[in-house]
Amino acid sequence: MNIKNTPIHQRFGNKEVIISEGIRSNNAYVVLKGEVRITKKVDKKNIVIGTLKEGEVFGEMGLISDEVRSATVTAVGDVTVGIIDKEAFDQLVSKLPEDLKAIVLALVQRLRVTTNLLARVGLELDNAQNQMNSFTLKDHSKNK
Known about the structure:
The chain has a single domain (3-142), classed as Sandwich (Jelly Rolls). The chain has three helices and six strands. The chain has helices spanning 60-65, 86-93, 98-142, and strands at 8-12, 17-19, 27-42, 45-52, 57-58, 72-85. Strand 3 and strand 4 form a beta hairpin. It is globular. The mean pLDDT is 83.
């Protein structure tokens, strides 16, 4: 299976949510056209984790680990994605040796932890930037 030639395609408009954090899903996706933004909710704030462009895959962690989505993915402009369903994915994975499956699962778990840490770092940076901006505004108003 060539993921860029997936038979099922879906289109999304600007700011349309493709997958939602915390929801279980049976699909992974490849960006065929456009780009998507990945965000994670931390302390009631949405933190941008990254942006994916044409040819990049998302949603694969849920297929491998059978857990809920770790982040939300939203269209930036018009986006077309190819859909990789769990059944087709499982057929490919079933051909892997058991020890390799264990390694892939371990990598997915580490990636999930890294995503959570990255979101925390993003929140801290956002908080620091807001604090710096408030100091700048206070200093600016004193100089008037």
